[in-house]
Automatic annotation (TrEMBL), chains A, B:
Pfam families per record: Aminotran_4 (PF01063)
Catalytic activity of the protein: L-isoleucine + 2-oxoglutarate = (S)-3-methyl-2-oxopentanoate + L-glutamate; L-valine + 2-oxoglutarate = 3-methyl-2-oxobutanoate + L-glutamate; L-leucine + 2-oxoglutarate = 4-methyl-2-oxopentanoate + L-glutamate
Biological or metabolic pathway of the protein: Amino-acid biosynthesis; L-valine biosynthesis; L-valine from pyruvate: step 4/4; Amino-acid biosynthesis; L-isoleucine biosynthesis; L-isoleucine from 2-oxobutanoate: step 4/4; Amino-acid biosynthesis; L-leucine biosynthesis; L-leucine from 3-methyl-2-oxobutanoate: step 4/4
Coiled coil regions, renumbered to chain: none
UniProt organism field: Paenibacillus haidiansis
Name of the protein in its database record: Branched-chain-amino-acid aminotransferase
Amino acid sequence: MSQIQFTRNEQPKAKPDANHLGFGKYFTDHMLVMDYTEDQGWHDLQIVPYGPISLDPSAMVFHYGQEVFEGMKAYKTADGRISLFRPDMNLKRLNASCERISIPQVDPEALMEGIVELVSVDREWIPEGDDTSLYLRPFIIATEPCLGVRAAKEYKLMVILSPVGSYYPEGIHPVSIYVEDEYVRAVRGGTGMAKTSGNYASGIKAQEIAKLEGFSQVLWLDGVEKKYIEEVGSMNVFFKIGGEVITPELSGSILAGVTRDSAIALLRSWGLPVTERKLSVAELFQAARDGKLEEAFGTGTAAVISPIGTMKWGDEQISIAGGDTGEWSRKLYEAITGIQKGLLDDPFGWRQIIL
Amino acid sequence: MSQIQFTRNEQPKAKPDANHLGFGKYFTDHMLVMDYTEDQGWHDLQIVPYGPISLDPSAMVFHYGQEVFEGMKAYKTADGRISLFRPDMNLKRLNASCERISIPQVDPEALMEGIVELVSVDREWIPEGDDTSLYLRPFIIATEPCLGVRAAKEYKLMVILSPVGSYYPEGIHPVSIYVEDEYVRAVRGGTGMAKTSGNYASGIKAQEIAKLEGFSQVLWLDGVEKKYIEEVGSMNVFFKIGGEVITPELSGSILAGVTRDSAIALLRSWGLPVTERKLSVAELFQAARDGKLEEAFGTGTAAVISPIGTMKWGDEQISIAGGDTGEWSRKLYEAITGIQKGLLDDPFGWRQIIL
Ligand SMILES: Cc1ncc(COP(=O)(O)O)c(C=O)c1O
Ligand SMILES: Cc1ncc(COP(=O)(O)O)c(C=O)c1O
C-alpha cells in the first residue's frame, strides 16, 4: 500500500440498507487524514478508522471559518470496476478554494493516491442500486488554537466517505424553485467561486423560507444588482430558451461546477448551442411569458441533473416543460450517469477507473 | 453555585506572564459548555475543565459553517471587583447572529448566569496590568453529523476565556490602513451584520495582501458599489471631518459594534455632532485633500480604540492627525477603559459589576 500509513478498523460497522441511504447520513469504516504545520508542510497522510476528531475549542475553524471542501462520487461500473468522475477537476478546484481562503496548497497527486487507497479499503461500501454511489467528501479545517483573525499555521485535511442514494428523496423529479431577492449567497469579490463553508451558512435562512412557502430550492441572484441569475440551491443552472441553452457565466461569485462543465460539453457535442452569459431573471420570465422557455435544470455532483418544474418570482409563478422532466434534462442525466457507471462510451475521457 | 453543573479542573495550568499575553493565545482552566438537541432544546449547561472537544468529522460546522460567536471582556476594577462592559448587548447580538444563521435562540439570562459563574471560577486568571483584561469568547457550532445543506438539529455552545494584552503589540498607536477595492467582506442581503465565521474567512486574503504592502489593516468598502466605507479590519470606523464625526450607518452589511454604540454616545455627551450615514471613500479623500479630515479611528472590543494614522487608496496615501493619535481617539480610549476598569464615573450604566 505504497508509503501511506494504514490502521485497519477492527470493528467494522454493519452496512446500511441500500434502499434507504438518503444523503450523507452513513459513513464508512475508514477515513483519510493529513496534517499541516508550518515546519513540515502537509505531512503524515494516513488512513485510519473512521471516528471523532479532537480539537481545541480555540481551533480557528470554529471562529474564523477557514475551511474548504470538495464533493465527488465513486461508482461501481457495469463490469465490476470502480470509477471516479473527473476527479482532477475536483482537486484543482480544492486548490483554487484554498487559494481564496489562504489555506496552503495540497499536492493533488499525493491526495489522489490517498483517495484511491481509501476507496479501495472501503470498496465494499460502494452501493450498487440505481441512483446510488459512494460520496467522497475531502475537506480542510484550520486547527491552530488561537483567537486571532489571520491565516492559521496548522490545518487538518480529511476525506470521509458516505454511501448515498438520490439527493432528492423523489429521485430525478422536477423541483420547484423560489427566486430569492432579499438574501444573497455571494458577491463579486467575495467567496462565491470557492467551495467554503461560509457560503453555505449564508444560504440556509433563505432556503428555510423557501421551504416554508412550499418550494424545494432557492434561485440566487447576483449580490450587486439582484437582477442576474447565479445558481440554484447548491447547483449551477441552465435554461433552454428558443432552442439555445443559456447558463450564467463564471463571474467570480459562482462555483465552477464539474457537472456544469460536463453538461456544456455534452450539449454542444449533441449540436445544441450553449451560451455562457449574464441572464436576468426578468429576461427569463419574459421568455416564459412568450412561450420560449423550453427547459430548465440544475447541475451538481449530488443530484447530477435536477429538472426545474416551476419557479416563482415575486407574485409570478411559471411552469416549465409542463412541470415535467424535459427532454434534455433526461438525456443529460442518462448520459452522465451512464458514463459514470460504465454503461456508455466515454468520448471525453471523463471516467477514471481507479480499481 | 445555583443549578449549574461544575467539574473542577484538578490540574490547573501555570498562568502566563502578564507582560507578554498577546491576544487569544492562552486559555484559562475552565470552560462553559451547553448542548442543543431538537428534543431537549438548550440543556445541560456545565462548567468543565478547559480541554479538547470531540466531534464527528461530518459535524456540520466543518462543512456548512453554521457558527456564530461573540467577544467581550472582563476587567478587574480599581476597587477589586470584576466588571463586564454592556454584556446585555453582546448576548442580544449573539441571538441576532443566531437568527441570521438559523441557529436556535439562547436564553440570555441563563447564559449570563453561566458566564458569571465561569468568570468567578477562573477569576485568578484576570490579569491586572495596563491594557490587559480577560477576553470572553462565547460561540456556537453545529455538531449534527450529517452532510446536508440545511440547519442542523444539534449544536454546542461554549464559552472560553483568554487573558489578553493589547490587541496590537504596540498598544494604542496609530495604524496604517489599506482601502481594499477588489475583495469584499460582506454585502447587503449577506451575513455582514452577523458575527459568523464565514465573514472572517472571506477577509483573510485581503488582509494578507495589505500586510505584504506594509499596512496593518484593511478598510472594507460596500459590496454593491465598492464606493462606501463599511468597516476597518474587525472594527467599526469613525472619521472627524470639519468638526463633525461621521460613521457608516448600520446598513445590514456592518456589524453593530458595542464599542461603536458607546463611542457615539460619549462623543454626543461631549457636545460633538455625530452622524451615521453613507460615506464614500472619494468624499473622505477629498476631505483629506481639503485639510478637513481631522481624525480617524476604529472601534472594537479587542483594541477598544485604534487611531488611524495613514490610509492608502489606489495610488493616493494620506496622513491623518499628523500620523499621531488624535485628541478624540485618546479621549474615547481613556473614557471607555476608565469606565471598564472602574476608574471613572459610569453615567450611562454600562459597567456591570458581576463579582
Ligand atoms: C454552490 C454550488 N454550486 C454548484 C455546485 C455544483 O458543482 P459540481 O457539479 O462540481 O458538483 C456545487 C456543488 O456541488 C455547489 O456547492
Ligand atoms: C467585523 C467586526 N466589526 C466590528 C466589530 C466591533 O464590535 P464590538 O465593538 O462589539 O467589539 C467587531 C468585533 O469586535 C467585528 O468583528
